[in-house]
Amino acid sequence: MSQYDADLSHGMHVVHDGPPQAPPLLLIHGSGASGASWGPVVPALAERHHVLRVDLPGSGTSPPVPSYDVPEQAGRVAALLDDLGLRSVTVAGHSSGGYVATALAERRPDLVAAITLISTGPALDALLPQPVILRLLLAPPLGPLLWRRRTDAMLRKAIEATAAGPVDIPADLLHDLRSTTYRSFRTVARGNTAYLAERGVPERLAALTLPVLVLFGAADPRWDPSSAHRYEAVPDARLELLPGVGHLPPLEAPGPTGEVLLGFTARDADLPAVGPET
């Protein structure tokens, strides 16, 4: 597996893995995270794909921008794909990264061949009461103070609060989380809320004509896991629930997550599907 970094003029840091000539697979992280959140699942994906991991603006090593509205984020991702000359890309988004993936398909259907949504809440009413540590980090006036004083231990506690059990957190993800500002995190959250308030994700996807994979942890503490069934209304959508997994399938269950994603991408490609572990 080859890997190289690219800092491009559009202001997003990108890491490439796998053969450049292989079918492209773009991975978009969720709020407050970075491309490092996909780390454990990348080796399996890169055996068959040209895997691109972006740090969205204001996250990881990408600089902040004035606006974090979801459609504008999607426009920046489209500019990246245009710069790279890529088309017919499978786009996978984790959590709110799924909103950016969906908005990308809405704005530029010529770029997107298929979408995978991992732990992406379908509508605002599916959001569960958030873990206390997340509420403290987000809510003023205490939030900004805690954000400035956050430690690795605090960040680990916040991440683990969204998992169903113990999780191995990559060191580079912690490093990237320390780089994200409170303003960026809060503004991204408001942009996500506005996107969902305008129209739910299943309704948006139903208006498109492309294959969709929805992967949810059956023990997700952030979004009601039963709300994943709303995606069954989307034509040509496939739903997978991972037992005993919370909001972070790429970290909590990288093996099964990679297998499901590879099976989906192989469906319409000249590639053998990967079966479940036995």
Notes on the protein architecture:
This protein is an alpha/beta fold. It has one domain: Alpha/Beta hydrolase fold, catalytic domain (Rossmann fold, 3-Layer(aba) Sandwich), CATH 3.40.50.1820. Helix 2 crosses helix 3 and helix 4 packs across helix 5. Helix 3 links the parallel strand 5 and strand 6. The relative contact order is 0.16. It is built from eleven helices and eight strands.
What's the structural blueprint in terms of helices and strands?
Elements: E1 3-7, E2 13-17, E3 24-28, H1 42-46, E4 50-55, H2 70-84, E5 89-94, H3 97-107, E6 112-118, H4 132-138, H5 142-148, H6 152-160, H7 171-179, H8 182-198, H9 201-206, E7 212-217, E8 237-242, H10 249-252, H11 254-265
Parallel strand pairs: 3-4, 3-5, 5-6, 6-7, 7-8
Antiparallel strand pairs: 1-2, 2-4
Helix pairs in contact: 2-3, 4-5
Helix and strand sequence: EEEHEHEHEHHHHHHEEHH
Q: In angstroms, what separates the terminal alpha carbons? A: 25 Å
Report strand %: 15-25%
Principal-axis shape equals globular
Spatial strand order of the main sheet: 1-2-4-3-5-6-7-8
Compute the number of structural domains. 1
What is the architecture at the second tier of CATH? 3-Layer(aba) Sandwich
* Alpha-beta classification: alpha/beta
Biggest beta sheet attributes: 8 strands, mixed
CATH third-tier fold name: Rossmann fold
CATH class: Alpha Beta
**Range of helix content:** 25-40%
**How many strands?**
8
Overall mean pLDDT stands at: 91
CATH superfamily: Alpha/Beta hydrolase fold, catalytic domain
Radius of gyration: 17 Å
Uncertain stretches: 270-278
Continuous helix count:
11
